[in-house]
Design goal:
The chain has 3 helices and 7 strands; from the N terminus they run ααβββββαββ. It is an alpha+beta fold. It has 3 domains: 30 residues; 36 residues; 84 residues, no CATH class. The longest helix has 44 residues. It is rod-shaped, with a radius of gyration of 47 Å.
Length: 187
Amino acid sequence: MRIPPIDLALSSALVDLVTVVLGVLLLLALIAVVVLARRVGRVERRLVSLTRGEDGRSLEALLEAHLDKVLSLGREVDAVKVRTAVLEVTGRRAFQRVGLVRYNPFEETGGNQSFALALLDADEDGFIISSLHARAGTRVYAKALSAGRSEGALSDEESEALGLARGATRGRPAIVDHAGAGSARGA
């Protein structure tokens, strides 16, 4: 088997052509690398500007600060929930509804100096305080209320004060002043 001879002139021209093509490809590759490097640089600069906060901190530092703030607010909300629950329980025991009836039980005294005052909490527990004013002196009576009921009998004015207190809303006292025909204010 015989190997044919190689034509060096043809191979030299072929090597020159391949070298030129590879050189052009290398030049194009270098240009592509430069273009891509510039694009990467622009993207990096944009990323840095996006991730830098107003005071120059990184986005990670800003996110950590915000997370700390959110966690702190969560703890504060939990504390407020606990305090609110306590206030709701104790608030039901506070006097929330007030009914006051002023009247004149005796003809010889002037003005409506006597009164019946009903003080109720959310469960209608509380007191009725009555004051009877006469020339000889003033007497004060108190009756306990449980679920809106008294252990003893109530006078008409005390019953009216209790009814006013039951109907009182928005924390405003309901007041009736019996002067002559009677005038009403309140709720």
